Amino acid sequence: MEREFPKNVKQIGNVCDEPKIYVEDYVDTYLNQLRERAQSEPVGAVLTGEILKMDGVDVVYVAGALKLHDIGVEGTEITISDEAWRQMKEEKKRFFSGQDLVGWCLIGEGQPGVLIKGIQKVHGRFFKKNNTVFMWRDAALEEEELYANKFKELMQIGGHYIFYEKNPSMQNYMINMRKKIGVTPSEVVEDRAAKDFRSAVKEKREYKEHRQNARFAYAVSVALVLVVLVIGVSTINNYDKMESVQDSLETLSQSVTRPQAKETRVEEVKQETSSERPEKNDVEIKEEAVEAKEEAGEEKEETQADEGEKKEQDADTPDLQSRSEAGYYIVQKGDTLDKISIKVYGSRGRVDDICRMNGLSDGNLIIIGQKLLLP
Description:
The protein is about 50% helix and about 20% strand. The strands form three sheets. Strands 1-11-2-4-3-7-8-9-10 form a nine-stranded mixed sheet, with helices on both faces. About 10% of the residues have low confidence.
């Protein structure tokens, strides 16, 4: 099946240059996690995906990222040991066997200017293919620079896209590497692009609802003005009728400002009625006793039904427990983050941790079959 341009994207910077670079959301989230590890020393990662031409445009899709376990930076020199490269190859075969090497990323402090010669040397050795990319990320600031190998030189690209789709390969790699890189839920860096995108969706929804409410209020106001004008014109020469109209408007105003008056009166009537109610005779007392017994029988049947449901839930517990120990949970039909937190941890208290682990800010933006990382 021929690949199509992603529809669910977030633009970062100026994307007029070629090749067009698309970075998957989980890859961007993982690189942000590595940024936390680069405060003390530079961290490198190899990028996987595919390089192709679509509608006459050069495109690079980055769908995976593999941490380089041994990368050295000294002065202007950058070194990648043979053992680190071999280990990366094994992990690529295990998690991203169907993808190609499309570039690499280096995370450090400041700007890459002093390292440009070392960067070009590494790129020329391992990533000779045209349009392969190099990504620099500042460890302290949320800033990044992208370069593409064009005409045998690294040329800076103005911007790129973050795209959102199912990425089980990257999820599985992140689950496997989470303990190795020492990431805990409190250390997970929420994806900036995903957060902005989901916030924009939420704001758009709220704006739409506000606009609909405003239209309704405007229509009601216009109708009230028309009613007042019609009544005023028809009664302009009749003082008695004008007084009647004034009384009607005052009544309408009171009904709007004091909507609870009727409810209060109903409660008073109930209290008066209950106080005037005659005492119960022996026949009524016997009838209430029979009703109480019947209600007790119904409560007993409901208790037995609850025990049956509890047994069915206990039968499903082993499968849920095995998935929790594996470090992920697969979204089922009808799930929300509250329900998932209760299923896995027994309370709603871990919803925020699940959100931060998966770069989520809105629990409604999960889909059936999605694999969520568990804190």
